[in-house]
Amino acid sequence: MPSIFIIPAAHGWNFLRSAEQNGSWTVRKLQTLEEAVPLLAATDDFVLGLPVSAVLAQRFRLPSVDPTEFPEMIRIQVEKLLPFAADEVTTDFELIEQNESESVVSAVAIRNEQLAEVAAPLLEHGYIPRQVTVYAAQRASTYAPKGNALLIYPEGEVLVYAMTENGKLSLARAIERNGDQLQLELPQLRLSAELQGIDASSPNVLLDETCYELRETVEGILTSSTEIVGIELPPAPVKLNLLPESWRRRRVQLTRQVEWQKRLVWIGGAYVGIVVLLFAYLALLRFQIGQLDRRIAHDAPGTEFVRATEARWKALAPAIDPHYYPVEILQHLFESLPSADVRITAYNQSARQISVDGEANTAALAYNFIDKIKKNPDLRIFQFDMAAPRILPNNHAQFRLEGKPK
Fold first, then answer.
1. β-pair partners for 384
2. Contact at 8 Å (CB) between 189 and 161?
3. Measuring CA to CA, which residue among 335, 355, 353 is closest to residue 399?
4. Which residues fall within 8 angstroms of residue 175, CB to CB, at 6 or more apart?
5. What is the pLDDT along the chain (406 residues), one digit of tens a residue?
6. What's the rounded Cα separation, in Å, for the pair 353 and 405?
7. How far apart are CA 367 and CA 88, in angstroms?
8. Is residue 170 within 8 Å of residue 198, measured between CB atoms?
């Protein structure tokens, strides 16, 4: 159900809004529709009820045919009553009763130009109702959903006389609001209803609470008791919808625009959120980097001491580490000789390098020698490399090994 109804009142309009928290309804009186503009939002789903004076309400008897043919039949009937082209008028109907031979329908029509004039304050600000109906039909559906009823209530400076059947509007007239005029008009209106086939002999008479002073007059004229009714909170739903097709299309466009605006706002918010998170992350990284820099600066003296000590130990290693002793190294080199066919002819050692010259009967033996050296666990503190052996005239292979501490 819509959350907002705008309906005509005795002096202006009533603005009905549902409270989402507890489901109650609030009523705000407006002098003009312009006052409703600041109370609405682009996303509001509202119903506009029209006064009887703005529409033509007519009761028709039609042959019982396919219900899909009713709109065209009613359009033809309305065209006979109004001097306007079909595209200048919006019509709708409700089924009052139906049997095998005929159907009784309640038809309502309004000229689009007049509807635009009534709703101009809303349209100028882009507020298009979801449904445009007739307030008399809303009251009938609320208070007299079954049987025949007579509604009397004020709209503007006039009184509305509305006959209803099974909650559908059958006959509606506007008369002046005074007792003498009621004495004259009510009997004639009852006669008009009877001539149209409406049983007006004993209807349920519903008098608006703002017309309480007319209760005795109405009961005296109609010789029946009246029931006092107030504002419907909310009005019962009705089928009648006089929203022009052009308004429907425009409303769909506006709804889509609002949806896209919401999406863009969400996308923009998400983008801003990501940017904020990114800046926060960068700030956190800068803070952490600053902390690391301070720690590095704090530990720099100790780190420098460790580096200097390591450098000194590396410099002293050849003198104090047995693995660097020439005798130990030569011993391990001779242990790695694959056979007597490989001979060491020269050995040189400095603080940072070892060179070994030798001769093997074949190049394969030279390669076998370097392979065994690399696998010797006592020589793994050195990184040994050997260039391709030089082949001598006697087919022996002359080689040179170079080793550096790892």
1. 403
2. yes
3. 355
4. 158, 159, 161, 181, 182, 185, 189
5. 678 999 999 889 999 998 776 778 999 999 999 999 999 987 788 999 999 999 988 888 888 777 778 788 888 888 777 777 778 889 999 988 888 888 888 899 999 999 999 999 999 988 999 999 999 999 999 999 998 999 999 998 889 989 999 999 988 888 887 767 788 888 888 888 888 888 877 788 999 998 888 888 888 888 888 999 999 988 998 999 999 988 998 888 887 887 888 888 888 999 999 999 999 999 999 999 999 988 888 888 888 888 888 877 776 666 667 777 888 888 999 999 999 999 999 999 887 789 999 999 999 999 999 999 999 998 888 899 999 999 999 999 999 999 998 8
6. 7
7. 107
8. yes
Closest C-alpha among 164, 151, 159 to residue 179: 159
Which residue reads 């409270």 in tokens?
19
DSSP code at position 371: H
Q: What is the total residue count of the chain?
A: 406
Q: Are 122 and 129 in contact (CB under 8 A)?
A: yes
DSSP H or E stretch at residue 252: helix 245-320
